[in-house]
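Saturday, quiet lab. Running sequence design on the structure tokens for the scaffold JK sent over.
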């Protein structure tokens, strides 16, 4: 690549908005249409080339943010997808589904609150019924809250919601999916830079992400003999509805500016890591590892 090509590529890189992101806040679960600017999920840019042809994937939190970008990329690579999300996120889920339908791949909608074990089982069964099986489980649903109060005021409800969404649901979904997974299948968990560089304000959340890394390595050891690979993606600061729904307005303005690349990432920039890990012909010997998509922050 010559210098002019490199320069032209760099000029196309996304940047944070001039002066930072506009201060903004919304309630959980966040909504894509209320974000300013609306994130880039690869709608206009992701080009597929049959890398996941014939695979069937369940993507939790597939309505918005990173999950939407993964759904669009998977569908354009030839996979059928099932999307799990909270019932109040139907609008976002429908929009993701319409991008999948545009590729002529099958999309199955599986609303339900994953903090309930029976719901996790139902979501997996609905996905398997609708897709005719499951080859890839993407455990992407997650929740955080930036904490102002001291540890003594961290409420039991919040601790329950963070741990149940991020850890319990991941175990429950994986248990329910196991009978459907076969040799060549894979699981992709979503970790975070918070597993490596925990912020005090995200104490409970960061611990769940460290737990997800540990779980990923151990599950890879358990399922390896069955020919099932287990990996994780650890995003850095990515512009998704989770952020304005759970961080202070002032933090949003400078979101991602503290990374070596100096900006937040877009959901679209995470999708290729998931495609690689899901592709049996490309990642056939990749298991028990964590791929960082962090804008340069270290994942070790
Ligand atoms: P997002 O809000 O777009 O996606 C999170 C999704 O989780 C929601 O859309 C929702 O459908 C799902 N979810 C949450 N609670 C649920 C519940 N009880 N039942 C069912 N579904 C539930 O935000 P995102 O940033 O794309 O988050 C996706 C994953 O990425 C999360 O695991 C998050 O921790 C992780 N992550 C995000 C960032 C970031 O900066 N955005 C950084 C590191 C890791
Ligand atoms: Mg959502």
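Result came back. Writing it out in full:
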């Amino acid at each position: 690549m010559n210098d002019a090509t490199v320069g032209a590529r760099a000029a196309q890189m996304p940047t944070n908005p001039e002066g930072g992101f506009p201060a903004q806040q919304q309630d959980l679960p966040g909504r894509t249409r209320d974000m300013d600017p609306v994130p880039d999920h690869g709608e206009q840019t992701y080009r597929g080339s049959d890398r996941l042809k014939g695979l069937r994937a369940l993507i939790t939190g597939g309505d918005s943010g990173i999950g939407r970008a993964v759904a669009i990329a998977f569908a354009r690579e030839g996979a059928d997808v099932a999307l799990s999300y909270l019932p109040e996120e139907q609008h976002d889920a429908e929009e993701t589904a319409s991008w999948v339908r545009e590729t002529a791949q099958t999309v199955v909608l599986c609303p339900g609150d994953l903090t309930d074990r029976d719901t996790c089982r139902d979501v997996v069964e609905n996905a398997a019924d609708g897709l005719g099986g499951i080859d890839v489980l993407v455990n992407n649903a997650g929740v955080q809250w930036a904490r102002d109060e001291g540890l003594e005021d961290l409420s039991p409800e919040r601790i329950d919601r963070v741990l149940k969404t991020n850890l319990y649901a991941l175990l429950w979904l994986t248990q329910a999916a196991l009978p459907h997974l076969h040799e060549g299948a894979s699981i992709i968990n979503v970790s975070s830079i918070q597993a490596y560089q925990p912020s005090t304000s995200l104490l409970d959340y960061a611990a769940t992400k460290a737990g997800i890394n540990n779980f990923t390595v151990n599950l890879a050891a358990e399922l390896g003999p069955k020919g099932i690979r287990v990996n994780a993606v650890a995003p850095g600061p990515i512009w998704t509805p989770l952020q304005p729904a759970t961080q202070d307005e002032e933090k949003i303005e400078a979101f991602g500016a503290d990374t070596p690349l100096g900006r937040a990432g877009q959901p679209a920039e995470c999708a290729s890591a998931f495609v690689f890990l899901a592709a049996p012909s490309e990642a056939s010997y990749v298991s028990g590892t964590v791929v960082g998509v962090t804008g340069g922050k270290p994942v070790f």
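Notes for JK: The chain has one domain: 49-293. The longest helix spans residues 156-177. Ask whether to fix the surface positions before the next round.
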